[in-house]
Write a structure and sequence with these properties.
Layout: H1 3-6, E1 11-16, H2 20-31, E2 36-39, E3 53-54, H3 56-64, E4 72-74, E5 76-80, E6 87-91, E7 97-99, H4 102-115, E8 119-121, E9 124-130, E10 135-140, E11 146-154, H5 161-165, E12 176-183, E13 191-196, E14 201-208, E15 211-219, H6 224-229, H7 235-238, E16 248-250, E17 261-262, E18 265-267, H8 282-302, H9 306-337, H10 341-353, H11 355-366
Parallel strand pairs: 1-2, 1-11, 2-8, 5-13, 11-18
Antiparallel strand pairs: 3-7, 4-7, 5-6, 9-10, 10-11, 12-15, 12-16, 13-14, 14-15, 17-18
Helix pairs in contact: 2-4, 2-8, 3-8, 8-9
Length: 367
């Protein structure tokens, strides 16, 4: 009998959510010597609506995990005004990022996780119970009825069940939603184009030699076609294109969280709180949080006393706030400012008029 089984445990760590952040956390946990299981109700590859652009820093983080997904080089960011003529452009100074289909990224991370011994268990979390020594997930689906471990890491997205069951959910403002599709078109630029409309934005990301991803964001009720109607510089490029995927939506985007830890439960990725996709930093922050969470749990397992263990877990909340501070500050400010029609009209012209400032902002996001 293994030590885990003898202690009534199925694993050291249960990671809930088999998307990129959850799989990254599982890979990190395995490297740290933890026995880890991933709980995911959907068959691979797991898809969701997202912009699919890995900034240079996010690409470096993925490669550090031993994964190098196929896609298209991203060399910078371009903001485009509705007239199509006013543009602000900046090329990354640190080298390219990569546009990667979400399914491709998830598949490669899943392969890497399996190669280091991480197993995925099918199931949807129905309940979460914990005491001072362990946490138990009650599941529904084709897998086991329950799983028990010393720790649970919720990486299950915007509408996280783990966050809700742990009492950490603080609601959403419900204002911003997103829709994404893919078109069979040769990319016309190697940069991510952000097209600004009256109340919507569209993010065009090359994801391969013959395909681009188009994600639109806007207020509740925003549809894909209605969003393109606000973007006369983009709509003609997509006219007649063969759509390779159906419209997939997400939202509300803004998710508020009371804290990132509750006893033996931690949160990472979108489950840990989300502002908006406006700056494209979500995945970079999520990958960094996954690493920080695993480091906190490894430190907790080495702690000589319950109080030292609690302090190690509490350090994750401070680490999360520090590594996400710039993202939260910049994105919250930009979302609030661009709710004002006058700011939206002037955003691209001002960015084009002060290229140094625009470039500095892009480099901050690219790191």
């Amino acid at each position: 009998m293994s030590a885990l089984a003898g202690a009534g445990l199925d694993a050291d760590l249960l990671v809930v959510g088999g998307g990129p952040v959850g799989l990254a956390a599982a890979i990190e946990a395995s490297a740290a010597g933890l026995e880890v299981l991933v709980v995911e109700p959907r068959p691979a590859p797991v898809d969701k609506a997202c912009g699919e652009g890995l900034m240079p820093g996010a690409l470096a983080a993925v490669r550090r995990l031993g994964v190098d997904p196929a896609g298209a080089d991203l060399t910078g960011i371009t903001y485009v005004a509705p007239d199509g003529r006013t543009r602000a452009e900046h090329a990354f100074r640190t080298g390219p990022g990569r546009g990667v289909r979400r399914t491709e990224l998830q598949a490669r991370l899943a392969e890497q996780a399996a190669s280091v011994g991480v197993a995925t268990v099918p199931g949807r979390v129905r309940d979460l119970l914990q005491d001072g020594a362990r946490a138990r997930l009650v599941l529904e689906g084709e897998g086991p009825a329950s799983l028990t471990a010393r720790w649970v890491l919720g990486c299950d997205g915007l509408h996280s069940s783990v966050r809700r069951l742990a009492g950490l959910d603080a609601g959403s403002d419900g204002r911003r939603y997103g829709v994404r599709r893919h078109a069979a078109l040769a990319p016309w630029t190697s940069q991510v184009e952000v097209h600004w409309g009256r109340s919507v934005e569209a993010y065009v990301t090359p994801v391969g030699p013959g395909e681009v991803g188009v994600a639109v964001e806007g207020p509740r009720g925003t549809g894909f076609e209605s969003a393109l109607a606000q973007l006369p510089a983009l709509a003609p490029r997509l006219a007649g294109a063969a759509w390779t995927t159906p419209a997939r939506g997400a939202g509300p985007l803004r998710q508020r969280v009371r804290a990132r830890t509750a006893g033996r439960v931690l949160l990472a990725g979108d489950a840990a709180g989300y502002v908006d996709a406006l700056t494209g930093e979500g995945l970079r922050v999520g990958l960094a949080a996954a690493r920080a969470a695993v480091e906190a749990l490894a430190a907790a397992d080495r702690a000589p006393s319950p109080s030292a263990q609690a302090a190690a877990v509490a350090a994750y909340e401070r680490d999360w706030r520090a590594l996400s501070r710039d993202y939260r500050t910049v994105t919250t400010g930009l979302v609030a400012a661009t709710r004002l029609p006058a700011v939206r009209r002037r955003l691209v012209p001002v960015a084009a008029a002060v290229p140094g400032l625009f470039g500095a902002a892009v480099e901050q996001l690219a790191r």
